[in-house]
Amino acid sequence: MSRSEVREPRRLTRWWRGRSLRTRMTVIAATAIAVSVFVSFQVASELMDHKLLDTAEDQLHADARVLAAGAERAGLAQVQLPPYPGSGRLVRVILPGGATRTPAGQPELPPVSEDAGRVAKGASTDLLESTDWNDGYRVYTLRAGDGAVQVADLADDSPINEFGFGMLLIGLFCVAGGALIGRGVARAALAPIDRLAAAAVRIADTRDLDAGIPDEGGGEIRRLIQSINDMLAALRESRQAQRLLAEDASHELKTPLTSLRLNIELLIRLDRRGTLDSALPAESRTRLLNDLGAQVAELSTLAAELTEVARGDVSDESTELIDFADVVVAAATRARSRMPDIEVALDVGSVWVSGRPAALQRAVLNLIDNAGKWSPADQPVQVRLRADDASAVLEVDDAGPGIDAADAPRVFDRFYRADSARSLPGSGLGLSIVRRVVDAHGGRATVARSTRGGALLRVDLPAASPPVT
User: Fold this and answer.
1) Domain match, 327 and 434 both
2) Domain span holding position 394
3) Which of 137, 90, 92 is nearest to 119 (CA)?
4) pLDDT digits over 56-101, tens only?
5) Which one-letter DSSP state was computed for residue 463?
6) Do 386 and 409 reside in the same domain of the chain?
7) Per the domain annotation, does 182 fall within a domain?
8) Residue 30 — very low, low, confident or very high, per pLDDT cuts 50/70/90?
9) pTM, whole model, 2 decimals?
């Protein structure tokens, strides 16, 4: 196959793909009707040709029998052959010696064939032949007496041609009508799609996600509209969550930024006046710098937690089969380095889970950090991990004041901080990150009161079978 032959189908494919759905449906409808008309014409032509041929042969047989009956009564040499009327069938009598008789004025027939001569000699009773002589004849030979009679007619294809011309006109009319009907059907069928596209464009222009698309039609159209409305609902929820996150973040950032700005402005103003050393003794300056460092650390923590919340469930980390005990131990090690004054007591057993190691370690670290804020210096934060039926159960408790019953339902909400916790460092995002990570792993996070009087935070994750070694 040459390159030009390969390019032609590609061009046709590109042209077809560039047409609108309405044009495609119109072309398909017209083509289907054209093919149907063509097939119908072929079948009808064959049936009509067969029927006409059978009728002509039956007439030849009937005329030959009449002539043969007269020849047997009067003899082949004496049977009367009426003069040729100028049109119609041709007749001929074959005498025993091979000579022939024809009516006066009749056109010449083709010579007697060898097969017809054998019929006249009694080799067979009859014979139907087709000849290409002149315009083409059908000749029927029938044994009669000591010879035979022949009846012939001219093969006439004019009825078939007339029928074909009529079918062509009908076909063209049907194709044109089919194209119009196809276009009308396409317009009616695609009307819901057009309205759907217009609604989507309107929503894209106005950014009004509350304007849903009316449910109409049925079947695929209804499912498409419902899918788009579900997508719009998800977008509304996402935009609402983004708005709330922005509002909460601006509120949480305002206080540390204001404090940081005031302290820095104070240092700059005293430095410009040259009174920094006299106005701020070394002890006060050290305390102020420590406050600045704590505020910067608080802003860094808040920025990291905001980034974690804003990312949602988007993560490049893959899920793998891990020993949850390794994750808990690693998180406790990090917590000890961040809170050297707080003891973290571990009581963990090997429990395998399927999850993202870094995300789970961040959740465990947040649980330990939260407990460390409340736990007295002489009381350790207790971290326990065990297997319970088909779950991996992690418990983190402290000996602090505990969580009030009114605050318990909202502990895992974003930016929520109990009144008693507002004086402590933190943003109110740590436990919300815990719940998001746990939910993403198909688990559950709950809060209760510890037997030591503090808070008991519990995480249940689906356990997995350990790997086969």
Assistant:
1) yes
2) 313-462
3) 92
4) 788 888 888 888 888 888 888 888 888 888 777 888 888 888 888 8
5) B
6) yes
7) no
8) confident
9) 0.45
